[in-house]
Write a structure and sequence with these properties.
The chain has 149 residues and is of the alpha+beta class. It has three domains: 60 residues, no CATH class; 36 residues; 52 residues, Irregular (HU Protein, Chain A), CATH 4.10.520.10. It contains six helices and five strands; from the N terminus they run αααααβββββα. Strands 1-2-5 form a three-stranded antiparallel sheet.
Length: 149
């Protein structure tokens, strides 16, 4: 039985992997057929062994996003990385100028102003002044909300 058929689309630490497998298939690590000469601790870190998305934590990092874009758009990983960097750069530049970026169906990136305020130092309890700041915000669009729910 292949690990990917028992527990697809995940990356776990060796300890978490063993715990999760015992829970999922009540067989512990015996349910995994390891590649010859490759210990479990190194095998679980292999990106080719595990697909892109970490469903246990619900996270996707930049490298995994680039891999996903390259696969879906049928382009090289280098081109996908450049396109992602271009998108992030365009959003940063527009927000820095005070504008908004709207991707219909996905959401809107905007900048809001946070007023100066008085806060408390949690260690000493003394009052401290917190400066005003511009803060980036993201408002999800209807299609994104519908896709999640």
């Amino acid at each position: 039985m292949r690990f990917s058929s028992v527990f697809p689309l995940t990356r776990l630490s060796a300890r978490g992997l063993n715990t999760r497998l015992r829970f999922v298939c009540a067989g512990g690590t015996d349910a995994i057929r390891r590649a010859p000469g490759v210990p479990l601790a190194t095998q679980h870190r292999d990106q080719k062994f595990f697909p892109q998305i970490d469903l246990v934590r619900g996270l996707m990092n930049k490298t995994e996003l680039i891999d996903h874009i390259a696969k879906q758009a049928d382009i090289s990983k280098a081109a996908a990385g450049r396109s992602l960097d271009a998108l992030v750069g365009a959003v940063k530049t527009t927000l820095k100028k005070g504008g908004t970026v709207t991707l219909v169906g996905f959401g809107t990136f905007a900048v809001t102003a946070r007023a100066a305020r008085t806060g408390r130092n949690p260690r000493t309890g003394e009052a401290i002044k917190i400066k005003k700041a511009k803060v980036p915000k993201f408002r999800p669009g209807k299609a994104l909300k519908d896709a999640i729910n």
